[in-house]
Automatic annotation (TrEMBL):
Co-factor(s): FAD
Transferase keyword on record: yes
GO biological process: dTMP biosynthetic process; dTTP biosynthetic process; methylation
Recorded name of the encoding gene: thyX
Lineage: Bacteria, Bacillati, Actinomycetota, Actinomycetes, Kitasatosporales
Catalysis performed (reactions): dUMP + (6R)-5,10-methylene-5,6,7,8-tetrahydrofolate + NADPH + H(+) = dTMP + (6S)-5,6,7,8-tetrahydrofolate + NADP(+)
UniProt-recorded name of the protein: Flavin-dependent thymidylate synthase
Task of the protein: Catalyzes the reductive methylation of 2'-deoxyuridine-5'-monophosphate (dUMP) to 2'-deoxythymidine-5'-monophosphate (dTMP) while utilizing 5,10-methylenetetrahydrofolate (mTHF) as the methyl donor, and NADPH and FADH(2) as the reductant.
Origin species: Streptomyces viridochromogenes (strain DSM 40736 / JCM 4977 / BCRC 1201 / Tue 494)
Annotated Gene3D superfamilies: 3.30.1360.170
PANTHER family listed in its UniProt record: FLAVIN-DEPENDENT THYMIDYLATE SYNTHASE
Any GO MF annotation of the entry: thymidylate synthase (FAD) activity
Length: 254
């Protein structure tokens, strides 16, 4: 998704009644730390038969690929837990809340109790399907027309402008941040550190990406899928053999 360059301001009888607001569609994920490797999976698996010698093993890709495929196929999941990946995610609050549904992760999010939130809000770009057709569980999303996109842009910017105006009013009056924030929408951007192991990440990817070749096809909201796609790129780079096995066996976490 791309950044929307729109900056919205408002005036009331010539007086600025709210600071500028930035409308953004970009959602970013950055890998900031990790201890992830395919060899780590091998060492964790081999300790059951090699004991302390497993930690000193060095294996080639052919051996590692075969063992990793066996572990994935047989649902021996614990060897995939002895690693970590930490991502810095910048996304609207409603997307971060989707992430926090995944309980085997660790999260630290910027706090609106301790800092003023920035005037940055999410608006879908032109590639985002807008309309829902069908019943829950049996529906699909389809693109809107120009009028639909104009409606979304106008409605969201007006709501964000009004919310941020009242938020700023309360802060200026000395109201505590933890109370002033209650008027802000879930489309406000936030930043979070998110840490997981490969097994938890594979479970996340299985649910938060739409892949026709998956054993269990999922239909996530597009915004969280954008997060998942960026995380999967890093996962595939760090642990190519594990990612290959994940793909081969239906994108199901072991």
């Amino acid at each position: 998704m791309t950044i929307s360059p729109a900056i919205e301001t408002g005036t009331d009888q010539g007086t600025l009644f709210a600071p500028e607001i930035e409308l953004r569609s970009e959602i970013t994920v950055e890998l900031v730390d990790h201890t992830a490797s395919d060899l780590g999976v091998i060492k964790a698996a081999r300790v059951s038969t090699a004991g302390e010698e497993a930690h000193r093993e060095e294996r080639g890709d052919e051996y590692m690929g075969g063992l990793i495929r066996y572990l994935m196929r047989s649902r021996h999941g614990s060897p995939f837990e002895h690693n970590s990946m930490t991502f810095l995610v910048h996304a609207p609050i409603f997307t971060i809340r989707h992430m926090m549904r995944h309980r085997m992760w660790s999260f630290n999010e910027e706090s609106a109790r301790y800092k003023d939130l920035k005037n940055v809000f999410y608006v879908p770009d032109r590639e985002r399907a807008l309309k829902q057709i069908g019943k829950p569980g049996h529906y699909q999303y389809v693109p809107g027309d120009e009028q639909d996109y104009e409606l979304v842009s106008t409605a969201t910017s007006e709501a964000y402008r009004a919310a941020f105006r009242e938020y700023q009013k309360m802060l200026d009056a000395g109201i505590a941040r933890e109370l002033a924030r209650v008027v802000l929408p879930v489309a406000t951007y936030s930043t979070v550190y998110a840490t997981c192991n490969a097994r938890s990440l594979m479970h996340f990817l299985g649910l938060r990406t739409n892949r026709a070749d998956a054993a269990y096809v999922s239909h996530p909201q597009r915004e969280i899928e954008v997060v998942a796609e960026q995380m999967e790129e890093e996962f595939a780079r760090l642990m190519p053999l594990t990612h290959e096995a994940f793909e081969k066996f239906g994108r199901v976490s072991p």
